[in-house]
Design the sequence.
C-alpha cells in the first residue's frame, strides 16, 4: 500500500469510528463495523429474539437500519463528515434473516446502495 492509500485508509477508519461513536441507534441495535476502506464499509448485526417479526424472522425495518448504517459509514469515510443522504435505497429481501443470524451488508458509499455480501 502506498503512502496515499495508507493515509486514505487511516482517514476512513478514523472517520467511520468517530461517526459510530456518536451513533446511538447503531450501537443500540448491536451493529458493528467489521471492515473499512475508503468509500467502503462492512457492518454486522446479530439478530436477537426481540428483533423478530410475526414470522419469526428479522423485521425488515431493522435490516433497512443495518443497510442505512452501512451507507452512512461508507459515504462519510473520506473524512467529509457533512450529512449525506441517499436519493433512493432499495432492499430486496431474497432470504429471511433468522434469529442468531449475522447479516453482513457492504456499502460502497454515495455511488451505490448497500449490497448484501453474506446472508446468514
Sequence:
Amino acid at each position: 500500500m502506498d503512502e496515499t492509500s495508507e493515509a486514505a485508509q487511516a482517514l476512513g477508519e478514523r472517520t467511520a469510528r468517530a461517526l459510530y461513536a456518536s451513533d446511538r441507534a447503531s450501537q443500540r441495535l448491536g451493529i458493528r463495523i467489521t471492515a473499512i476502506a475508503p468509500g467502503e464499509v462492512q457492518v454486522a448485526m446479530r439478530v436477537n429474539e426481540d428483533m423478530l417479526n410475526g414470522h419469526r424472522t428479522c423485521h425488515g425495518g431493522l435490516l433497512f437500519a443495518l443497510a442505512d448504517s452501512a451507507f452512512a459509514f461508507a459515504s462519510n469515510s473520506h473524512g467529509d463528515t457533512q450529512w449525506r443522504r441517499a436519493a433512493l435505497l432499495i432492499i430486496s429481501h431474497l432470504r429471511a434473516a433468522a434469529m442468531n443470524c449475522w447479516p453482513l451488508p457492504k456499502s460502497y458509499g454515495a455511488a451505490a446502495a448497500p449490497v448484501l455480501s453474506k446472508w446468514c
The domain at 3-118 is CATH 3.10.129.10 (Thiol Ester Dehydrase; Chain A). The chain has one domain: 3-118. The longest strand covers residues 32-37.
